[in-house]
Amino acid sequence: MTSSASASAQTSQRRIAFATIIGTTIEWYDFFIYATSAGLVFAQLFFQPAGHEIGLLLSFATVGISFLFRPLGAFLAGHFGDRLGRRAMLVLTLVLMGAATTLVGLLPTYAQIGTAAPVLLLLLRILQGLSAGGEWGGAVLMAVEHAPADRRGRAGSWPQLGVPLGFLLASGVTALMTGVVSPGAAYLEWGWRVPFLLSVVLIVVGFVIRRTVEESPVFAELAERGAQPSVPIVEVFKRHWHLVLLAALVFAGNGTLGYMTTGGFLNSYAINVQSLDTTAVLVAAATAAAVWFLSTLVAGILSDRIGRRSTFLIGFALQALVVFPVFWLVDNGGLPGLYTALVLISIGLGLTYGPLAAWYSEIFPASIRFSGVSITYAIGAVLGGAFAPMIAQMLLEATGSTTAVSGYLLAASLIGGAATLCLRDRSGIPLGPDHEAEQAAGATVFTARAEALEPAPAR
């Protein structure tokens, strides 16, 4: 490769990295602002007649219900992403998420319009779920399919970084509103709306940036050949259902623990049960997001060196080790204990999240890859993160302690680790349409590799 071509490729990689990180950060800022507010104010504003405890359960339930619509968003985005291209879906999902988030900030409360308020809140959360279900697949494929084979882990970590960055931004803006701009009653009256309304500015920035990115070279080649399947999702479930299930369980093992923090449960527990200051808890969550960001980046790079599977196994081992200590720390260590607990969680989360984009991209054939990674991610989110905060809250109320919650998190981590052992590492496998047979075979330990299926050469 000439020096000018190399420089052009590096510039393109930087542009893609910037576009995927910024866009995914905005998407997940929108998503996490809702989850953060669900743990802080929605019980009082939208579910007031139910009382605090039931209202909190209902708030967390709306967080979970949106996950049920992620598979539909993944199905739609995957279908059109495999048919029409990755970039168009990136722009569409960003706009949909931003519109839904902004409208939440404009919603009247239960005191103003009665039961219509929680109904409208739920409808907008469903739109967020549809958008989140479709956005991730397009972002990771744009990053991974543009990357050199030996740097896919690092490139795949770029859109993954948008998740902790979105959580950092959501926690930081909410902490600013609760602690500085509108403390006390003012936050409950109007301050909670500001983070949602800020989404308008972020969406404009993200839209402009994502419009400048070139289409994935893998899709461009598929389109040139006219090789797009007519109904890719049917092909995914007909030939790769076992792969979808196993890979979804891998992500579920990450998401169950992850949504203890991003889903608002641990924040709510620290504030309502341990009586820690709201703003201080949000600052601790923002600090944890920064650690999650770093561990995700390190994990992506590490997976290029030791493989996706090995990185995941290390991460799940760390997760399993911390699920009991984290609540002991919060119960007995005050604010320093909360910081320590969140940091421990964030390290394991990064190791089981950073390599996910590259691994998912390497286990599905090119022609159905968008549908495959999107629907798998969405199902994993339903199995793992969807109702994790609500389940944790129910276990806490039923038992009066966090031991059952820790047991629940341990089971999820062990299941994720077991599913990881059932998948093969495919680091470096060619991603283009010329290698569909190799891509379609041998992704799990229960199926034969492509080379084993080939006839022996004539002697």
Automatic annotation (TrEMBL):
Q: Name one Pfam family in it.
A: MFS_1
Q: Which UniProt keywords apply?
A: Cell membrane, Membrane, Transmembrane, Transmembrane helix, Transport
Q: What is its main location?
A: membrane
Q: Where in the cell is it found?
A: Cell membrane
**Membrane spanning residue stretches:** 54-77, 89-110, 122-144, 165-186, 192-209, 241-260, 280-302, 311-330, 336-360, 372-392, 404-423
Instruction: Please tell me whether the keyword Membrane is annotated for this protein.
Output: yes
For the keyword Transport, the answer is yes
Where in the numbering of this chain does the Major facilitator superfamily (MFS) profile domain appear? 16-428
- Record's bilayer topology term: Multi-pass membrane protein
Please name the PANTHER family in this protein's record: SHIKIMATE TRANSPORTER (PTHR43045:SF1)
User: Which protein are we looking at?
Assistant: MFS transporter
